[in-house]
Amino acid sequence: MDLRQLKQFVVLATELNYRKAAERLNMTQPPLSIAIKKLEAEIGTPLFERDRLGVRLTVAGGAFLGEARRLLDGAESALAITRDAAQGRIGTLRVCAVPSASLNLLPKVLPVFARRFPQIRLRLSSGSTVGILGELQRDELDAAFLVPPASRVPGAEMLALAPQRLILAVPADHWAAGGPAISLSELGDETLVTLAHSDSPGFAGSIAATCQQAGFHPRVLQESSHALISLPLVAAGHGIAIVPEAHRRIAIENVAYVDVSDASGRPLTYAMSLAVRQNSPNPAVAPFIETVRDVLEA
Fold first, then answer.
1. What is the pLDDT of residue 257?
2. Start-to-end C-alpha separation, the chain
3. What's the CA gap between 256 and 42, in Å, rounded?
4. Which residues pair with 221 in a beta bridge?
């Protein structure tokens, strides 16, 4: 017994007419009659009664009809699920993001992706750029939002996104708090709290280069292991910090945010990329990339 025989039986059981059933199946009546007889022989009981008045289901045929329909529906469902999985419409996608992207990029991308591909299960995590790249290379992630390093990373493909803005986080009693945008050159020799180079070399290097170009030479350079950890250090009066603009969404007592510009008066920015495994075997990666581009480029 195969699916073709089941379909032939169901169509004949629906039409109760060999000619009409054969037309629906795009075949002639004799092969259909032979196929039904073979099916009855395999099952061991007649499925139809045939006489001069026409064709009727036997009691056994009526019982078999419901099961045959369920089997065909199950086969169609299995085929649809298989096709969806092959085309990335179903499965699991492991996504990681640096904290700033978790605050401003993921909330934009994920709702759209979830609407487009509701059958794809997302596994989300957060981490530093260095840690994320290691996970990508170990096949523990499929895609990640991160600050790209200066050099190429084996096994990872970087898709550049729009630059992200930077702002200044200062203690609430700082002279710049509550005021208009300032230039880095106005900060003199203040203490700067920055992200450790070992955790995010791209971000830390970008901040250091921007400060140097603007003539801002911090008195002391304190490092934090995590961008969000910079804010409590600022609140405690240990210094000021140049942080992603997304941090405005985080309200911390005794911390104020100020717009800041470079030596040319332009807003400070840093690079952001979507990193994916090179030649990823996960078909869900391609629709995720497409969604990211549609949402963030729009």
1. 95
2. 53
3. 80
4. 192
| Half-sphere exposure at residue 61, Cβ-oriented, CA atoms within 13 angstroms | 22
pTM over 0.70: no
The DSSP annotation for 93-158 comes to: EEEEE-HHHHHHTHHHHHHHHHHH-TTEEEEEEE--HHHHHHHHHTTS-SEEEEPPPSS--TTEEE
- Classify 57 as helix, strand or coil: strand
Sign of CA dihedral 207, 209, 215, 217: positive
What tokens appear for 58 in the block? Answer: 């036997």
Distance CA 126, CA 135 (A): 11
Bridge partners of residue 209, in order along the sequence = none
Structural domains in the chain, CATH included, are 3-86 (1.10.10.10), 96-161+273-297 (3.40.190.10), 164-270 (3.40.190.10)
- Pairing mode of beta strands 164-171, 269-270: antiparallel
Q: pLDDT tens for residues 69-95?
A: 888 777 776 665 666 666 555 688 999
The helix/strand/coil state of 231 is: helix
* Better pLDDT: 43 or 255: 255
Say if CB 141 and CB 95 are below 8 A apart: yes
- Determine whether 25 is exposed, middle or buried from the number of CB atoms within 10 Å of its CB (0-12, 13-18, 19+): middle
Whether 112 has a pLDDT exceeding 90, the answer reads yes
- CA distances (Å), origin 48, targets 54, 61, 70, 178: 10, 6, 19, 86
**Looking at residue 192, what is its pLDDT?**
86
Provide the angle, in degrees to the nearest 10, between the axes of the packed helices 3-15 and 29-43.
Answer: 110
Amino acid identity at 24: R
